[in-house]
Backbone:
């Protein structure tokens, strides 16, 4: 067990004992290495199961929605942004939440890990500096951690929680590595026909399970537009147009709200490049309105406000 | 839409016009006897801020060849700030639609005041011409309706 897991357990037990939290939401190990699972600790014994590591991928901010009790939550940089964003939208009562912030250098992508394993069973994964030692029954393989990180982690600019009540001591790399939207700019440079072709092809794999929506901490509408029957915004069948409209609107609804935690992509069973759309919107909101979701607790969501001199070069 | 009399395709454009400015501008164009193409189908809305992006996508899905949204000039909104809120929404929406490959002239946003009958006629003429050049819409149109 690492130092951070120990410290999280200690903090969790203290918060439970002091009555500051009825439940501590964090991670515990599952039966699979590098696949920590969300954990709800209400007793010291349950708090002793809390862990921290490269497999703590889920954005636990989702579990704060619709919760009446006092909660402490283990949160990475992106998770804290999601909490800040939902607090600003009055979906989470900040007074009832204790944020246990963990500086984070990135978490592992299961898709990338599976590609490396190529069907072999992983029984153990040990971190050794910048590399991971992957062990199975008949193999041992060393892989650079940076090659296994989620794409969202590779462009992450907020490794350090922007707000927290308890900070788990450790260092995280400074944010803002390269041009975080380089790939989006590259895509924008393609012709409309090429972009349409990519969009159609990539999203034709969507099976409309709505896992991306359900995993997203910003998606909390009681009734989603896709489920509405009056008006019926999109059909419920398998018309590709309806799938495409779903994804356009999902991305649009994330405007000024998406914190790029990558929850949608982690949840997608088809491995669709969902962030290609949400990050476009993120980039535009940043360019047009100078706003970045969940970074500043005091500024309102970008699309909830306006300025008289907002750009309008798109109008006729 | 195919014109049954001539057998040629004619663009069909849905125009969401705000009640206070652009609809009145269209009215002024009419009573001033200004000519503009008959290709728009007007839907009167209380404010450009009322235009949910879903309405635009729904119009395209149902087969509209183009969508026009027009409201009061910034600063002139009957409800003070409806068009300012709309401007932020539309700025993001237009970029996103073009990003996924929708042709640039399919969806147009414009400000037309109640006194700008001439501007309204010009706007509709220009939008209709652009949509005509693009041809019948196929992207984001539902295949079976």
Residues:
């Amino acid at each position: 067990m690492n130092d951070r897991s120990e410290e999280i357990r200690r903090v969790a037990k203290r918060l439970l004992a002091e009555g500051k939290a009825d439940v501590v939401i964090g991670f515990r190990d599952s039966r699979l290495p590098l696949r920590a699972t969300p954990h709800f600790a209400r007793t010291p014994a349950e708090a002793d199961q809390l862990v921290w590591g490269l497999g703590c991928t889920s954005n636990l901010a989702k579990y704060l929605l619709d919760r009446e009790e006092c909660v402490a939550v283990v949160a990475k940089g992106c998770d804290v942004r999601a909490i800040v964003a939902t607090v600003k939208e009055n979906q989470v009562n900040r007074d009832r939440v204790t944020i246990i912030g963990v500086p984070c250098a990135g978490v592992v992508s299961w898709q990338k890990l599976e590609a490396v394993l190529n069907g072999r069973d992983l029984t153990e994964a040990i971190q050794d500096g910048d590399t991971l030692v992957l062990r199975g029954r008949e193999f041992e393989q060393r892989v650079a951690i940076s090659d296994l990180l989620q794409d969202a982690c590779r462009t992450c600019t907020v490794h350090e929680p922007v707000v927290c009540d308890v900070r788990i001591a450790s260092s995280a790399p400074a944010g803002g590595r390269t041009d975080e939207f380089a790939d989006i700019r590259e895509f924008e440079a393609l012709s409309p026909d090429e972009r349409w072709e990519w969009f159609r092809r990539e999203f034709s794999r969507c099976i409309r399970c709505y896992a991306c929506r359900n995993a997203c901490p910003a998606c909390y509408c009681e009734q989603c537009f896709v489920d509405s029957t009056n008006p019926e915004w999109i059909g419920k069948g398998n018309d590709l147009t309806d799938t495409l409209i779903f994804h356009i609107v999902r991305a649009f609804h994330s405007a000024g709200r998406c914190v790029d935690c990558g929850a949608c992509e982690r949840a997608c069973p088809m491995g669709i490049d969902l962030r290609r759309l949400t990050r476009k919107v993120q980039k535009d909101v940043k360019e047009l309105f100078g706003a970045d979701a969940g970074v500043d607790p005091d500024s309102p969501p970008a699309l909830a406000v306006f300025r008289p001199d907002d750009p309008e070069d798109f109008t006729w | 839409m195919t014109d049954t009399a001539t057998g040629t395709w004619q663009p069909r454009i849905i125009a969401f016009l705000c009640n206070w400015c652009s609809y009145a501008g269209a009215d002024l164009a009419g009573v001033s006897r200004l000519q503009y193409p008959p290709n728009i189908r007007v839907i009167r809305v209380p404010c450009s801020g009322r235009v949910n992006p879903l309405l635009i996508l729904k119009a395209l899905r149902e087969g509209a060849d183009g969508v026009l949204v027009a409201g009061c000039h910034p600063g002139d909104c009957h409800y003070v700030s409806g068009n300012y809120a709309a401007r932020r929404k539309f700025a993001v929406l237009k970029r996103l639609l073009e990003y996924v490959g929708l042709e640039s002239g399919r969806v147009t946003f414009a400000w037309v005041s109640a006194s700008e009958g001439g501007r309204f006629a010009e706007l509709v003429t220009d939008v209709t011409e652009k949509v005509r050049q693009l041809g019948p819409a196929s992207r984001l149109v539902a295949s079976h309706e």
